Amino acid sequence: MNPTHAETSDDTTAHIMAAMMRVLSGQPKLAEPGDLTITAVATEAQLKRHHLTHKHTDLKDLFYRLRDQHGNPASEHKAATAAEAADLKSKLAEAREDARKWKSTAQTFARAINVLTIENKQLADQPENILRLGKAERKCV
């Protein structure tokens, strides 16, 4: 006895609905967990994708509505990841600004050290600027 078209269609619909529930619950048997696409539903139902995109468009639309309306972990994770990325970008901008300031400060200190080194050398080369302390005077200083 051959199954009628209605029986086959009902079976296909049942397979698709079961696959949708497994995919949406995050516990698919064949598809990748977290992959909330029509392709994942088709893989899970062991059907070709065109069954959902051309023949059972009502089920495709239902899947998209369910996926988008309910707190699906993939979209929540995506939102959390985007927020974390924005936070990290602002921290990176702050760190770059701090690095720029520290580099400027280091260059200022390097210039000051160079000037003081030159002045120290000039003062050391002038004998009249050298004050000789006796032993008694060194103990007091």
Summarize the structure.
This protein is an all-alpha fold and 141 residues long.
What is this structure's SSE topology?
Layout: H1 5-25, H2 38-45, H3 50-55, H4 57-69, H5 73-125, H6 135-140
Subunit arrangement of the protein:
single chain
| Shape estimate | rod-shaped
Structural class, judged by helices and strands? mainly alpha
Strand content: under 5%
Q: Mean pLDDT, rounded to whole units?
A: 83
In total, the number of strands is 0
Report the helical percentage: over 70%
**Domains, number:** 2
Radius of gyration over alpha carbons?
Answer: 38 Å
Q: Gap between N and C termini, in Å? A: 117 Å
Q: How can the largest sheet be summarized?
A: none
Q: Pick out the low-confidence regions.
A: none
Give the helices and strands as they follow along the chain.
HHHHHH
Number of helices: 6
Descriptive overview:
The structure is a single chain. The protein is an all-alpha fold and 141 residues long. The chain has two domains: 5-70, no CATH class; 74-129. It contains six helices and no strands. It has helices at residues 5-25, 38-45, 50-55, 57-69, 73-125, 135-140. The model has no long low-confidence stretch (mean pLDDT 83).
List keywords for this structure.
141 residues, mainly alpha, 6 helices, 0% strand
